[in-house]
Structures are given as C-alpha cells and as structure tokens.
Amino acid sequence: MEGRLVDKLNKLTLDQPWRAIFWGDKQRDLQYVQEYKPENGNVSHLRVLLYGPVGAGKSSFINSVSNVLRGRMTIPTLASATTSNTSFTRRYETFKIRKGKGNPKTFYPFVFNDVMGLEEGSDSGVRAEDIKLAMKGGVREGYKFNPLSPLSERDPGYNPTPSPDDRVHILVCVFSANSAEIKGSVLQKMKAIRETASDLAIPQMAIVTNIDAACAEIEKDLKNVYMSKHLKKKMTDFSSAVGIPMNCICPVKNYSQEIQINDEVDSLIVSALRLIIDFGDDFIDNMQTSPAGQ
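The structure corresponding to this sequence follows.
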C-alpha cells in the first residue's frame, strides 16, 4: 500500500524541472529591477496594464510586487479575500510603488494599472473596448467602468490627447491556476484585446497565480513549481487557448496568508517582474522611432 502511494505521488511531479530558476539569484534580479530607468526621455515610467478573469489576483499581484520591492507587507491597492463572480476593482487606477523612505517621496519608474475583471456575457465585467482604449492611453485616471456601455469620446473619463506616459507599454494577462476552464465568451474578449495589443505592437505576457492552491506538491514546497505536471499542463492549455507563448507565461504565488517576506515567493515574483520590465522597455525603445508607439 505504501509503495503504491509513493508511486502515485511521484506521478504528480516530473523527474527534472522543465524550466530553470536559480533560487539564490533573488538579490541579482531585485537589483536589476531597482536600478531600472527608461532610456527614452519622453517616457518617465513604464506602464503595465493588468487584465484577466474575475478573481485572478490582479490587485494581489500589485501588492505582492510592492511587498518584494519594499521588503515588508504593504497594501497599495485593496484586494478582495473572498471568491466572487463579480469584480472587486471598479475604477481605472494607476498604482505607484514607493522607493525608499523619507521626503520627498520617490517612486519606481514603472506603474501598474488594474481594471475591472472580465466576466461572461456582454453586460457584465469590463468591456473589451475599454481595455483597448486604455492601451492607447485614452482612459483618464479614476474612470468608473460601466459594464453596460463602453467609454465614449463624450464621457469625462475619456482622454483625447494621451501622452507617451499615458500609453500602455506592456499588457499582462493574469489568470488563476486554481480556476475552472475559461469560458468561451471570456476567451473571445481576451482574443479581441490581444488583437488590439498586437495591432499596436504592445508586448504581451501572462501571470499565473494561486499555483500553491492548484497543486499540493507546490503547496508543500514552492520550489516544485517547475516540477508540477498539473501546473505545466494548466499553463500549456492556457497558452494554446489564448495564444501567449509559454516563455511569456510566469507562475507566481501572491502574498496572501503570510505576514513576513519569504525568499521563494519573492524569487518568482521578481523573476516575473524583470521579464515584464524587459518586454515593456523594448516597446518604449521602439517608441523613439515610431510616433505614438504605432
């Protein structure tokens, strides 16, 4: 009986990790992120737009990035701890992460925008048209998303003259490894959003959250992240359904129950953040020779 149990557990993990990660390199990646600065003089910060299904953990990812960079628990954005079919985020907000202490306050040269979650149906959740407009910089800070009607040029939330700083420099889809299969109507919205990003030449990535809740072996030891057969299949299936290449998909564990910083949690988050910065900075560089990033 004991032997069969061992065999069953062994089948949950691969013999070798399918992706290399150097757990001892957290400080190297952290220093890279801390020293980042856009070289394009027309851009003061790299703008990251997060989108995805309801409950994927977009707000929690922003908080987790802040935790890593500040070295303690922080809450720059409110996040819901309950499971719901409706989005917790309602407004278009820009989140900055403070750098160091003292006054005047300084911030990292990258910002995050969180949007209302994607939901089933045409009259619920954020509308794909609003996300497409946000990518172009056409949504003002504080705009309250309306599931029944997209933002129009007559709305005070519309920004008719976006600057290079207003534009999105990288689009990041956030989805949960512990969720059911993404519904067809949500996938269609994601496809429309991705097509617009591609037309604008905006790079795209994906962040997989809740990896510990999705796999017992990862919950037992976060270093099993790239040994988990279940997680690899989840990521492969998502890649096939949405079209984002596997090397542009990063699994992370958001901070949730912890009250202290954890090196393994940090390593996955800062590794994903470094890739976000690299891809976004490539787009910013291209903006120097391509007006309005087009």
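The mean pLDDT is 87.
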